[in-house]
Amino acid sequence: MTSALRAERDGRAVMKDDKIIAALNELIEASKDAEREMTSAAEHARDPDLARAVSDAEAANRSASAELQDQVRLLGSTAEQEGSFRAAARRSWRNFRSMVSSRNDSVIVEDCAHDQGSVRALYADALELDLPQPLYSIVERHHRVIVDTHYRLLDLRNRCRDNNARAIRAND
């Protein structure tokens, strides 16, 4: 094999690694954002089931981001250390909104289910990439936990909606 062909092949390998690293850093960023959202939610949740669910989600997102950071380092790159600016702005908006109106469990679970759904979609997208098998297994494992957590939050959201609907009917 000539050195030009080797360089071209090596260049494609580097581009592939760059794409994988970018995807992993996006997952890290999303996981860190979700972790912070869940931390805030856990502080404000009144329902014990909701508090437990968001605490579990917080821990799962923290664990996922830490493991993915290790994988990015193993690939010889720099891992994302912070969440996104967009998520920081969203948290600021939610903090402002909670000062103006009540931040009850119904609002908290809606926000958390939405956030976890966004993270779930990013993980599903990453699973569509041509990841090396060990990395694919890691991302798939995290995705399963995130899907389970998302379903748990959706169940809690639906329970809150049902309770709110019953309360409204009782007041009619």
Structure description:
The protein has 172 residues and is an all-alpha fold. It has one domain (3-171): Up-down Bundle (Ferritin), CATH 1.20.1260.10. 85% of the residues lie in helices and 0% in strands. The protein has 5 helices and no strands. It has helices at residues 3-44, 48-74, 85-100, 105-127, 133-171. Helix 1 packs antiparallel against helix 4 (105-127) and helix 2 runs antiparallel to helix 5. The longest helix has 42 residues, at 3-44. The radius of gyration is 20 Å and the shape is elongated.
- At CATH level 3, the topology is Ferritin
Strand content: under 5%
In CATH terms, the superfamily is: Ferritin, core subunit, four-helix bundle
Question: What low-confidence regions span 5 or more consecutive residues with pLDDT below 50?
Answer: 1-15, 96-101
Provide mean pLDDT, rounded.
81
What is the number of domains? 1
Radius of gyration: 20 Å
What is the chain-wise order of helices and strands? Answer: HHHHH
Structural class: mainly alpha
CATH architecture: Up-down Bundle
Question: End-to-end distance, in Å?
Answer: 81 Å
Gross geometry: elongated
* Total helical elements: 5
Helical proportion? Answer: over 70%
Q: Please write the CATH class name.
A: Mainly Alpha
Classify the oligomer.
single chain
Q: Could you tell me the number of beta strands?
A: 0
Quick one: biggest sheet? none
